[in-house]
Amino acid sequence: MSAWDFPISPALSGGCLFTPGAANLTAVCSIPLLNPGQSHDFVIVVHPFATPPMDVTAVAHEDGGGTASAFVTSNIIEVGLSDVQVSMTATSPGKVGEPLTYTVTVYNIQDDDAANVFALLVLPKKTTLVSATKGCTGNPLVSCKIGSLAPGTGKTVSITVVPTLAGWTEATAGVRLTTPDRDATNNSAASIVFVNP
User: Per-residue DSSP letters for 111-175?
Assistant: First the structure.
């Protein structure tokens, strides 16, 4: 795998060490013992930024003079790239005991579909969740299922809370999707609101 096609550090399962090289990315995973008839899975997740097909090779061997070995090659097929952008607004100023609504918009600004999209909102401390758009679950991390976003389309969700303490309060919005995203820098937004007594 070309290192330039995978610039984001992957998520690795336990026992793995990730090493970026000039031409390849290498993940070395080890376990102290594998008994006869046992198997062990290592999960390595990368975030491709290029669309051409790429080869991924996995090799297994036994240290300490053993003879066990295996070799397998898997091909990553060409994929499209999306670019989702997150924005957020809030009713301001807020007031203790009165509804405060956050509006999160996720917009696909690229020319490929964005798949399995979820809008995320981390609720501020000292607030009570009151209501949310249908398809939203969780507290204090609210996850709102959006589904697929065609190029040039967006969707908005609303989450309403009631502040329980006066002062500055901050909420953070983000997005999760399964399609490769070209630019992760526009995947989050924050809103700081002053809550009056």
Answer: SS-EEEEEEEEEPPTTEEEEEE-TTEE-SSEEEEEEEEE-TT-EEEEEEEEEE-S-EEEEEEEEE
Give CA angle at 65 (61, 68), nearest 5°.
Answer: 35
Instruction: In the chain, list all ranges with CATH 2.60.40.10.
Output: 84-196
pLDDT tens digits, one per residue of 118-140: 999 999 999 999 999 999 999 99
Residue 116 β-bridge partners: none
pLDDT, greater one: 77 or 112: 112
Tell me the CATH architecture of domain 84-196. Answer: Sandwich (2.60)
Nearest CA-CA partner of 132 in 148, 124, 121, 117 = 121
pTM for the model stands at 0.62
Within 10 A of 124 (CB to CB), how many other CB atoms are there? 23
